[in-house]
Known about the structure:
Order of helices and strands: HHHHHHHHHHHHHHHHHEEH
Distance between the termini: 35 Å
Largest sheet: 2 strands, antiparallel
Bound molecules: 4-fluoro-L-phenylalanine
Oligomer: single chain
Amino acid sequence: MAEARGQFSSKLGFILAAAGSAVGLGNIVAFPVMASKNGGAAFLIIYLLFIAFICYPVMLAEISMGRHTNRNPVGAFSELSAGHPGWRLAGILAILTPFMIAVFYTVITVWLVVYVKEIAFGRLDLLSNESTFGEVVARPSLFGYLLGLLGLIFTILLGGVKGGIERLARVLMPTLAVMLVALTLFVLTLDNAVAGIRYYLVPDFSRMDLSVINGALSQAFFSLSLGMGILITYGSYFSQQDSISQSTRMVAVADTSIAIFAGLLILPAIFAFDPNTNTEDLSTSSVGLIFSFLPQIFLSMQSAVGYFGASVVAISFFSLVFFAALTSLVSIIEIPISCWIDELKLTRRKAVLLQAVLLSIFSIPAIMSLGISDYFTNFTSYGGVTKSFFDLVSDVFYETILPLVGFTVCIFCVSVLFRRE
Ligand code: PFF
């Protein structure tokens, strides 16, 4: 007998799971830095306009595509276009993209686990050393952590939509919100925190130009997990009876609020560390900021709260980022799994196993790309720069194909969906 297709238990289950997918590194790290560099509240206003008038409609479209067809992205694109090969290809890209994004996101999540462990063992001082990150990512022991993380993720996914994804989000999302508020309140009590808030929230319209506007739109798409096939798939697990619009609004509001709130944590923390911080100097890469810069900031808090206190703050922050990454990762790995279940007619157990094997095959070279193996570290070169396997996956799928898939969904809705009625 065929297995029943997964479904969320309620609207709240959907909201928490979709918010779990949306809240990730993009909210906690990329957004605050982007906002502070690009005009503070002026950037925020543009961002909010994009969320309300572009991203919210695209969210509705993606969720409706899934709910209407009850299928994964390949199935949804095919069915709605009556089998048009071009649109089927768009569906395939909407599976391939999350598949490959999961590869390098898994590696980053492994680093987060190592950082939490190192701080728990009293080594915050070591992590705040400039050279430590390069040493951590080249440790062969990362394989063990990778294995453990994949074991955890695939056990959660074996539990299914309700018992796995939704249950994880029900526990982690409220925990994440409480930790974020508690950490922010603490950081706001530090000297000079107000300078950070000022930098973050005072509007500076002189910084607005086309590239800032473009950056705000990309960030809004990325933050809401658009173009990753996630909302199409989650839409297919949404009850046929409930209204989509209210739940979608809640997800957009939750994601945006967490991003704005994260700014109230990161910027004051940075300014408390150095009141003369010039935000132009902040790293543009989330990875550099999290793993190299923030440990220094946490360590500097020892003058106020002692080494143990600083370690507690650091471990809370890294656990918060880990929870955000874990819920996003579980969501994104579910997309190919749903495709194997629908299109290859596999049971969930077999689909999860297949995906576990495939993800392992790709994440092993990715984790070896930062020093463990010379071959994968110097995998290729383009634009005059040597690129690792990890860089290649990130550049091709994250930087290039992801926005393309988001754009394709918009074109699909306008040219195929809305014409059908
Ligand atoms: N919306 C997520 C974020 O803001 O970080 C984007 C994301 C990235 C979701 C990677 C899932 C994922 F695996």
